[in-house]
């Protein structure tokens, strides 16, 4: 059965001390996730080791990197390999966030290579996809997202693709306060699952968690997560506030 997941994306926010206080605050307040639930904190690279220590021994709680490089090792100054992440005990990597695609020019092909190296090293990707506003206005979002999935994931085997968590994040809803309606989220998630089923069969598609991202907050989490094909959320702004993120975790099915 697929997991229900609340994933925090801190982006490039917080000092180490603020991050530690946030993590302590959330972990101190939230009830232990159920066996079918997971909580993931995608923190900035310099905080990975300390965050990993803080969650030691907590069931169903994980730390993620927000990115990685597509090469194993070598002369790539400033980059971080998946093996380095693994040596810290990190099990998850966020890939293809729209901010990386837009500001750092990350292409579908580059992301496919990153997906490969993450899986080959034994970690799991949270693979982000989602359309910009003009695509939504033209009502071609299914083609757009379908193409993103095809280009970066469909070379994977059925066994590999089940290790991927997909985060659907309409770009027009990220950090804008403008959330997709729960019906819009469900519609896209059902489309993604149907596409996965076409490619890999219904059983595989039903095992893949599909998270919604885009201005999720305590006030809307329950309604969005309550949709049948929405398996939790990838949360930016609201994950930086203890009570907001605790409520979001507690809204998981
Ligand atoms: C995100 O960072 O992936 C995100 C969805 O941000 P926000 O929740 O702030 O819209």
Automatic annotation (TrEMBL):
The organism's taxonomic lineage, starting at the top: Bacteria, Pseudomonadati, Bacteroidota, Chitinophagia, Chitinophagales
BP GO terms, sorted: gluconeogenesis; glyceraldehyde-3-phosphate biosynthetic process; glycerol catabolic process; glycolytic process
Catalytic activity: D-glyceraldehyde 3-phosphate = dihydroxyacetone phosphate
Protein name as it appears in the record: Triosephosphate isomerase
Residue positions binding substrate: 9-11, 175, 215, 236-237
Keyword match Cell division: no
UniProt superkingdom: Bacteria
Subunit and partners: Homodimer.
Family listed: Belongs to the triosephosphate isomerase family.
Listed pathway(s): Carbohydrate degradation; glycolysis; D-glyceraldehyde 3-phosphate from glycerone phosphate: step 1/1; Carbohydrate biosynthesis; gluconeogenesis
Enzyme class: isomerase
InterPro entries with a match to the protein in the record: Aldolase_TIM, TIM_sf, TrioseP_Isoase_bac/euk, Triosephosphate_isomerase, Triosephosphate_isomerase_AS
GO CC terms in record: cytosol
Alphabetical list of Pfam families matching this protein: TIM
HAMAP family tied to this protein: TIM_B
Gene responsible for this protein: tpiA
Compartment list: Cytoplasm
GO terms assigned for molecular function: triose-phosphate isomerase activity
């Amino acid at each position: 059965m697929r997991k229900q997941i609340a994933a925090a994306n801190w982006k490039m926010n917080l000092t180490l001390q603020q991050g530690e206080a946030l993590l302590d605050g959330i972990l101190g307040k939230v009830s232990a996730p159920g066996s079918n639930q997971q909580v993931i904190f995608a923190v900035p690279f310099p905080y990975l080791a300390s965050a990993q220590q803080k969650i030691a021994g907590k069931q169903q709680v994980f730390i993620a990197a927000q990115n990685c490089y597509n090469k194993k090792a070598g002369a790539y100054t400033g980059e971080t390999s998946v093996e380095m992440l693994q040596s810290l005990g990190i099990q998850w990597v966020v890939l293809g966030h729209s901010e990386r695609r837009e500001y750092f020019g990350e292409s579908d092909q580059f992301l496919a290579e990153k997906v490969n190296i993450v899986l080959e090293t034994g970690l799991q990707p949270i693979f982000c996809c989602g359309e910009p506003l003009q695509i939504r206005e033209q009502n071609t979002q299914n083609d757009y997202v379908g193409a993103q999935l095809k280009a970066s994931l469909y070379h994977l085997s059925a066994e590999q693709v089940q290790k991927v968590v997909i985060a659907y994040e309409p770009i027009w809803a990220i950090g804008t306060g403008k959330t997709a309606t729960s019906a819009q989220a469900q519609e896209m998630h059902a489309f993604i699952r149907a596409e996965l089923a076409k490619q890999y069969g219904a059983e595989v598609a039903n095992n893949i968690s599909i998270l919604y991202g885009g201005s999720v907050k305590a006030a809307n989490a329950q309604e969005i997560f309550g949709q049948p094909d929405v398996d939790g959320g990838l949360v930016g702004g609201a994950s930086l506030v203890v009570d907001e993120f605790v409520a979001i975790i507690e809204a998981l099915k």
